Amino acid sequence: MTTYDLRRLRLRSGEEHREAVEIELEPLVYGGQSYQPVPETIAADLTITGASSGTVFRLRFESRLIGPCYRCLGEAEFRERIVASEYQDADRGADEELRTPYLERNQLELSAWARDAVALALPETILCRPDCAGLCPECGRDLNREPHVHEHEQVDSRWAALEKLRNEL
């Protein structure tokens, strides 16, 4: 887990500190599937700005995850430029909404913040390609590689009694 020590910074209101940092990313579990960050350690730009009432944090980095496609289970890639911001009110009694959850004892938890920022940027479904056909619901073959149609009509077993009744009439 990558953290950034804020004790060495002495920012006054309006001052800004920029630094290139290396952040370790852990695999992300999304929709019950594991997506691996590539590479596991990413380069990011961290900007810390002093404000009259607190501190503003900004993190910028390129995210790339590899894992299973939601439709065909083949390899899918998610790539996105992430820009995340957080605010920490200087007043310790301030509302929770005005305090970042990634700051604890002057340590900014960069790995957790980056992971959550990537999770918020993910699409609803991660696909290997936009027109992925998925898997055949009858035989399970990949319809992207073997497009096909099954000739026989499969009747749901729950309707078998009605089908029998229809044939008798």
The largest pleated sheet is described as:
6 strands, antiparallel
* Number of helices, where a helix is a run of at least 4 consecutive DSSP H or I residues: 2
The helix-strand sequence is EEEEEEEEEHH
Number of strands: 9
Structural class: mainly beta
Q: Work out the count of structural domains.
A: 2
Helix content, binned percent: 10-25%
The average pLDDT score comes to 89
Summarize the structure in words.
With 169 residues, the chain is mainly beta. It has two domains: 3-132, no CATH class; 135-169, no CATH class. Helix content is 12%, strand content 38%. The strands form two sheets. Strands 2, 3, 4, 5, 6 and 7 form a six-stranded antiparallel β-sheet that branches. A hairpin with a 2-residue loop joins strand 3 (28-30) and strand 4 (33-37). The chain is elongated, with a radius of gyration of 25 Å. The model has no long low-confidence stretch (mean pLDDT 89).
Which key features would you list for this structure?
single chain, 2 domains, mainly beta, 9 strands, 6-stranded antiparallel sheet, 3-stranded antiparallel sheet, 2 helices, 169 residues
Give a short summary of the structure:
Helices cover 12% and strands 38% of the residues.
Strand and helix layout:
Layout: E1 3-5, E2 16-24, E3 28-30, E4 33-37, E5 41-50, E6 54-68, E7 75-89, E8 103-104, E9 107-109, H1 110-121, H2 160-168
Antiparallel strand pairs: 1-9, 2-5, 3-4, 4-6, 5-6, 6-7, 8-9
